[in-house]
Amino acid sequence: MTQPTDIRRVLTGLEPFRVLDAFSCIGGATDGYRRAFGPNVHVTGVDIQAQPDYCGDAFHQGDAIEYIRAHGHEFDFIHASPPCQGEGAPTKGTNAARNAAIGRTYPRLIVPTRAALETTGRPYVMENVAGSEVRKDIRLCGEQFGLGVLMHRYFELGGWTTQQPVHPRHRGYVRGYRHGIWRDGPYVAAYGKGGGKATVEEIRTAKGIDWSTDHLRLREALPPAYTAWIGAAYLTTLAPRLEVAA
Q1: Of 95, 127, 134, 190, whose Cβ has the fewest other Cβ atoms within 10 Å?
Q2: pLDDT digit string, tens, across residues 202-235
Q3: Helices then strands (H, E): number in the chain?
Q4: pLDDT tens string 14-59
């Protein structure tokens, strides 16, 4: 079995710090980890769909859970963002009857993803929306990073822990129509189309993503600022281990 990289060799530039971004989409999470871990990081993305705009170092098209099971132990850190369509409140509540009537179903992948992650023995983070089955260890919001989206996301931390950052008060509404009422505000709605929802350029600016113009993928992508914070938080947990090993 391939062993995780010795962190001392990583920080001295002798070996790359290997990150797996599972369910990567175009690599919003990938870009954040590259910012956090610096030029010596190597990030591999995995997604069931082709992602020509993926921004990492390597990409594998295939089943992310199977890839984690087969190769997760080869990485130093794993990020996973299972599809959220079947996890949020609208799917489970508001839209449940309509989806049932038309036979629309969504995969529920959090539990099998967690099981795969736990077999690797590697530190991980799994991200999803409110109402999902991820453990709510950390909540991040665009306002914490001065972004033009709110986009609350929850993060389950495996094999490590950190403190919840302060969640500042929102500065106003998300721009657009809601229940037939138009509201202006400092944030854009980076989902769907129409009703004042964000354009491609607005999403790029609001999320801090400049390498794609694919509207759907931009909507799905995690703002890199989130995983830049996660990666930096993980690095702080390594300091005591480095002192002991010195």
Answers
A1: 95
A2: 999 999 999 999 999 999 999 999 999 999 999 9
A3: 9, 9
A4: 789 999 999 999 999 999 999 999 999 999 999 999 999 999 999 9
pTM of the model: 0.88
Candidates 165, 82, 84, 73; CA nearest to 123 is 73
- Can you tell me which residue has the tokens 């944030």? 187
| 28/208 Cα distance (integer angstroms) | 9
d(CA 235, CA 145): 19
For residue 218, what are the contacts with CB-CB under 8 A and spacing of at least 6? 26, 190, 200, 203, 204, 207, 209, 212
Instruction: Say if CB 169 and CB 130 are below 8 A apart.
Output: no
pLDDT of residue 130: 93
Burial class (CB in 10 A: 0-12, 13-18, 19+), 102: exposed
Q: Is 65 left (phi over 0), alpha (psi -120 to 50) or beta?
A: alpha
Structure token digits, residue 78 = 């794993």
Say how far apart CA 164 and CA 47 lie, in whole Å: 29
- Matching residue, tokens 């993926």: 54
Query: Which two structure tokens, joined as six digits, stand for 200?
Result: 């491609």
Percent of all residues in the chain with a pLDDT value above 90, rounded to a whole number: 77
